[in-house]
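Quick one: co-fold with zinc ion.
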Amino acid sequence: MARQLTCPSCGGSLTIESSFTTFLVCTYCGASLYVRDSGIDVTGKTAQLAEYPSRFSIGARGQVRGRGFRVLGRIRYKNVDGFWDEWFLQFVDQQVGWITEDEGDLTLVFKSKLTFPVPPYEQLRVGSFVPFGKDRLFLSEKGEAQIAGAEGEISLNAPPGKAIRYVEGNVANKAMRLMLDDQGIVLYTGEPLEFNDVTIAPAE
Ligand SMILES: [Zn+2]
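Sure, here it is.
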């Protein structure tokens, strides 16, 4: 359900489309806003994202494997190797998810409940299998990243600029990622997409 609010920094009139949104970048002044039940907090400015070619943009509508969505926001992470973008999608049934875009590779992921303990980050070795609930996880990457910037509205735990740790791999034929910060561990699972799995409608 969309909500209207006023930017505490510039007075601009903003709309929040998703009830899952916790973070919003003001369209007018670029202020970073935390959206809480108690109100809106300004956390500073979010860096403007340098553009590079992508089919996605804020407000774009499209389909992923035939399922309609709208792009609500984007977050950019940077690590030692470069950066990747994550597009925050709202589907027609209001479910939210993310498409990760990393040098053209697309992965559709959804936040999942982590219902079992995972080994400590330090003990996770890239290129090895680790127990993961009832399954085994093949670990393909781990590292540290930072939020380099954001736009639009997103669901977000760690504030921009804060270092997070991530672990990526495959479990039971699904793509898996853990995001670790001092708030805890968040699990995302999903699947890689082919280019043709995603269609974007022409701008209205
Ligand atoms: Zn503003």
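If it helps, The CA atoms of residues 17 and 103 lie 28 Å apart.
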